[in-house]
Design a protein that fits this description.
6 helices; 7 strands; globular; seven-stranded mixed beta sheet; binds iron/sulfur cluster; TIM Barrel
């Protein structure tokens, strides 16, 4: 059985793909099979949008505080499935929807993608990870070393125009000085910074 949905607290998480163009130092995929006690999040095959929707139909979506696209992979690697399933969620519940993304959708999909997701998420949480390109590449190890940091920032700026709430996040494995630099960058961009606790 594949784990497409899993619950943490009173939040429903969606694991729609295992694809990702990065290899982040702190990625939960490095620490085992699941996320904080869930079953294995390695998918036997790439689920279709229909399979994801079928998994959602088994859930009482109204009963959750939030529904979050997250999981063992980058959701925008399967943009069509993401959009289709997010539209389904919007059609059946008012529960807030969030996406946790590395912000590299435009590079992944080789086109401008932010607007395609208009209306689908209440919150977009983007991994900032570092205050500059060099440190970002070190931590995130993206496929596109020359353009990933700028593309992620660009995506965040665009997202900030479109979605009600946008967050840039860092994990507290970086130094206090670096967190401060990230805070300054976020201030300049007018986007909230969230410092996430690293729990392996
Ligand atoms: S972007 Fe997300 S899924 Fe991909 S390696 Fe980094 S933390 Fe893991």
């Amino acid at each position: 059985m594949m784990t497409i949905t899993y619950v943490l607290g009173n939040k429903l998480y969606l694991n729609i793909t295992n694809k990702c163009p990065c290899a982040c130092e702190f990625c939960i995929r490095r620490n085992g099979e699941g996320a904080y006690g869930s079953d294995s999040l390695w998918l036997e095959h790439q689920p279709t949008a229909e399979e994801v929707i079928d998994a959602l139909k088994k859930e009482d979506l109204d009963s959750y505080d939030e529904i979050i696209f997250c999981g063992f992979g980058e959701p925008t690697c399967e943009l069509n499935i993401l959009i289709k399933t997010a539209k389904y969620i919007r059609s059946v519940t008012k529960t807030p929807v969030r996406i946790n993304t590395n912000g590299l959708s435009d590079l992944i999909n080789e086109s401008s993608t932010c607007k395609l997701m208009t209306g689908l998420f209440d919150t977009v949480s983007i991994s900032l990870n570092a205050s500059d390109k060099e440190k970002y590449n070190q931590i995130t190890q993206p496929k596109w070393k020359d353009k990933a940091f700028d593309a992620m920032i660009n995506f965040a700026v665009e997202a900030n125009e479109i979605f009600p709430k946008v967050i840039l996040s860092v994990v507290d494995v970086i130094s206090d000085e670096e967190i401060e630099k990230c805070r300054e960058l976020c201030k300049k961009l007018g986007i909230e910074l969230r410092v996430r606790n690293y729990s392996a």
